[in-house]
Amino acid sequence: RGSINLLPFSAIRRNMMRDNTFSKKVFIKTVSDNLKNKYRKTIDDATQQELYQAVSEAVKDVIMDEWIATQRVMDKDDPKVVYYMSMEFLMGRALGNNLINLSAYKEVKEALNEIGVDINAIEDQEPDPALGNGGLGRLAACFMDSLATLGYPAYGCGIRYRYGMFKQQISDGFQIEVPDNWLKDGYPFELRRPEYCYEVKFGGYVQESTDENGELHFEQKDYQSVLAVPYDMPIVGYDNNVVNSLMIWDAEPKNGFSLESFDQGDYDKAVEQENLARNLVEVLYPNDNHVKGKELRLKQQYFFVSASIQRALARFKKHHSDLKDLPNKAVFQMNDTHPTVAVAELMRILVDEEHLSWDDAWDITTRCVAYTNHTIMAEALEKWPIEIFQRLLPRVYQIVDEINRRFVMQINERYPGNEDKVRKMAILYDGQVKMANMAIVAGYSVNGVAKLHTEILKNQELHDFYEMFPEKFNNKTNGITQRRFLAHANPLLADWATKKVGAGWITDLTMLSKLKAYADSPVAQQEFAEIKRANKVRLAKYIKEHNGIDVNPDSIFDVQVKRLHEYKRQLMNILHVMYLYNKIKENPSMDFYPRTFIFGAKAAAGYRNAKKTIKLINSVADVINNDASIDGKLKVVFIEDYKVSNAEIIFAAADVSEQISTASKEASGTGNMKFMLNGALTIGTMDGANVEMFDEVGADNMFIFGMSSDEVISHENRHDYNPVDVYNNDAELRKVVNQLVDGTYSPNDHELFRELYNSLLNPQQGQVADRYFILADFRSYANAQQKINDYYKNKSAWRKSALLNIAHVGKFSSDRTIQEYVDDIWHLDRITVNMAGV
Ligand code: GPW
Question: From the CB of 447, is ligand 1 less than 6 Å away?
Fold first, then answer.
């Protein structure tokens, strides 16, 4: 990369902050200088990708000044820092969001306009850094945004996967996974930091020795190691000069591949070590709410955790010599159990490398780590075979073993002779390392992500732990960032809200409650309707371009976008579409408001039922969309490659938000909040954060249906649910279920959807029939959908409800969530970054 002189733009931007003038001329000059220096091109002959790079470099220059200033404050003030440790950060595109948070989006958009460049087209050049699967990874990204905006010192710690979430192509209705080479053109918003490299060791054995003072030492021998190299991404706070860092780790071979090893006869070992570095961060595991005990996954976990802790301790040591002060300066928040090896790694470093006693090390560790649980799904519980764990991390395993030994003693003290308690709570049991148990035992805080979820943790899933450590348990209901999901995603609605209630909502979402005053206003309702329609036209255009399907922007846009999972019940949604189609065919003049059912979802590559559901949705779409006899009343669209960037377009355009998980299964959900923020009405179960949305917005403005979580859980405990009874007693539902296997949607292969049929009625070995209560909830769902049909016809009532949803969304900002984490768990102080004189 050549050196680029970018000073003019940043200087001008700072002038802009002073006298409110933005020099488009200087900005354009910066962009054209960048094009010249980077590509030997002018604006006229640059490609869109080159323009994107040049614009991003210009923006990065501004960010750099604030980033330097923020790091300087952190160095000087030495505040307590949160290290948010997560296997996933689903960031979405950076350029547009950074411009929003620099409060420079409009100015840059206009400047680009003047040279005939469309900012949307430039933004579309950026790949989505998709270093995450779904909700959990996106939550981490929203948290980073809120931390910076609230001015809290924070590092995100994660992995720089060379391939993020796969790109989804739909071919003949089937999902095909295509590698996502997001780094191929170079990513402008990352900074390689080779000066903060660390070694991470795998395998070998532990050598014990005694020194002259009679003290025991443990040393890992004959290991393979890789070099962890961090790349920092700037996290720009909203209009406050604060720029935090996301550190994502790349793996490099320690010495490169050297002939030296060959000479020593260690050729094989050198090859292995080289391959380890190459494979380690190659790809994100594409599973959501499901783990497979793959050795490479554990390697990834230890790799980023060890490197992050080493960097955190190095930072700490710049200011401190006594590690007992660590809990006052650092907290490690573990995003689910994926980084839980942090507990043992921190212990290892404190005991083996810093020579603290076990008790001192344990005291420090247990005041530095905290754990967030994101699911009660059994298949998402991480358990590693001891054999793998011990072979890969021999010294870390010894430490886990000792943590376990001491904890089991504690259990026995409290519950003498109660082997059941040991069975359920021990960290090592049945040949397995149970990561959640270690996270709870070591963590000083254990939190769920919505009220209902936390209650289920306390009363069911983690009840034994709750009984032992009630003080650890707390709730932190999830939230989302309004900067991305309103300011950036929906500029029309954002501007409208600002006109009505001022711009305060950008950093205080509860300000939108002032919109209540407009809910009954015919003018406001009309304005809202026009904005919603414009956003529907925008999505219709996207669908036309990507799917070739014409959709009617005056139909109800009914949307379910999220990972494909049986508990999320996309199958129930499409069965209901099939049901509606049957009804319209039987009675073409029935009362029916035109509806477009929109789906977007990626299925884990090996998840058969999920993939079949995608095929079913596409097959149903083919039949319905091509049936001229229904007069376009019903359309079905499957949006290919659902990701953060198209999510922004989709949320803005939705009328109806489908949040239909089996009650008790969706820990929180966050898409539900993004729809609400954009004025969609929710049809949903009393699950996850839906419950709290209902508390905020009220029964009149939401469509609730289905079994409660208590009902679901008691059926599960009593094993007394029989879907065949439901099937036998509901002729219309029976017809729909039969259509899965009678060729209606698969004329060439009647067996194509047999597995889905079987999952409902005819469980295969080891399965439970209709595990997610689709048939049980179907009628109640159909009734709620009927209510939507009727309600939408009353334009004024619908728009009023939509406005009330927006007005009551305040609680669901991740700013509120982060403030609660800070108050109850992290105890951080805000920093202020002043750019005057820079
Ligand atoms: F299984 N979530 C997710 F708990 O997106 F680890 N992926 C996951 O692997 C897990 C949870 C895990 C989601 C929850 O399903 C969702 O309900 C929640 O809103 C989100 O995490 C953020 O808390």
Answer: no
**In the chain, how many domains are there?**
2
pLDDT tens for residues 492-550? Answer: 999 999 999 999 999 999 999 999 999 999 999 999 999 999 999 999 999 999 988 89
In terms of phi and psi (left: phi > 0; alpha: psi -120 to 50; beta: otherwise), the region of 466 is: alpha
The answer to whether residues 454 and 591 belong to one domain is no
Mark whether 573 and 722 lie in a shared domain.
Answer: yes
Question: What does DSSP assign to residue 448?
Answer: E
Residue 26: what pLDDT?
Answer: 86
Q: Which helix (H) or strand (E) holds 261?
A: helix 259-263
State the pLDDT confidence band at 34, using cuts at 50, 70 and 90: very high
pTM for the predicted model, two decimal places: 0.97
Q: Is residue 334 part of a domain?
A: yes
Is 441 close to ligand 1, i.e. is its CB under 6 Å away?
A: no
Is the CB of residue 302 less than 8 Å from the CB of residue 396?
yes
Sheet strands (E) in 349-395? 369-372, 383-385
Asked whether the CA dihedral 657, 658, 660, 664 is positive or negative, the reply is negative
Catalytic choice (453, 488, 562, 633): 562
Residue 780 pLDDT class (50, 70, 90 cuts): very high
Q: Which residue owns the Cα nearest ligand 1 atom 10?
A: 289
349 and 473 both lie in a single domain = yes
> What is the band of 38 on the pLDDT scale with cuts at 50, 70, 90?
very high
pLDDT for 10 beyond 60? no
Q: Is residue 663 part of a domain?
A: yes
The answer to whether residue 702 sits within a structural domain is yes
Question: What's the CA gap between 562 and 564, in Å, rounded?
Answer: 6
The answer to whether residue 562 is catalytic is: yes
Distance CA 598, CA 680 (A): 14
Is the CB of 374 within 6 Å of ligand 1?
yes
Residue 300 has pLDDT above 70, yes or no: yes
CB 132 within 8 A of CB 141: yes
Give CA–CA dist 66/835, Å, rounded. 7
Ligand 1 pocket, residue 139 CB under 6 Å: yes
- Ligand 1 centroid – CA 289 distance (Å): 6
Q: How far is residue 250's CA from residue 227's CA, in Å, rounded to a whole number?
A: 8
- CA dist 109 and 114 (Å) reads 9
Residues 461 and 509 in one domain: no
- What residues pair up with 220 in beta bridges, in sequence order? 206
Per the listing, tokens 């599960």 go with 716
Element (H, E) at 398: helix 394-414
Q: Which amino acid is at 20?
A: N
Q: List the one residue out of 695, 688, 700 whose CA is nearest residue 808.
A: 695
- Cβ(112)–Cβ(55) below 8 Å: yes
| Catalytic-labelled residue, pool 70, 340, 481, 670 | 670
Give per-residue pLDDT as tens, 397-451: 999 999 999 999 999 999 999 999 999 999 999 999 999 999 999 999 999 999 9
| DSSP per-residue codes, 572-599 | HHHHHHHHHHHHHHH-TTS----EEEEE
292 a catalytic residue = no
The parent domain of residue 306 ranges over 133-159+190-477
- The answer to whether the CB of 449 is under 6 A from ligand 1 is yes
User: Active-site residue 563, yes or no?
Assistant: yes
95 C-alpha vs ligand 1 centroid, how far in Å?
26
Residues 421, 534, single domain; the answer is no
Q: Is the dihedral of CA 323, 327, 332, 336 positive or negative?
A: positive
For residue 635, indicate whether it is catalytic. no
Q: Whose CA is closest to 554, among 537, 577, 573?
A: 537
Residue 742, token pair as written in the block: 């009678």
Say if the ipTM goes beyond 0.95: yes
Same domain, 436 and 543: no
Q: Is 405 an active-site residue?
A: no
- What does each C-alpha distance from 181 to 165, 178, 279, 495, 568 come to in angstroms? 10, 9, 15, 35, 29
Question: From atom 12 of ligand 1, which residue's Cα is the shortest distance away?
Answer: 289
Q: Is the CB of 457 under 6 A from ligand 1?
A: no
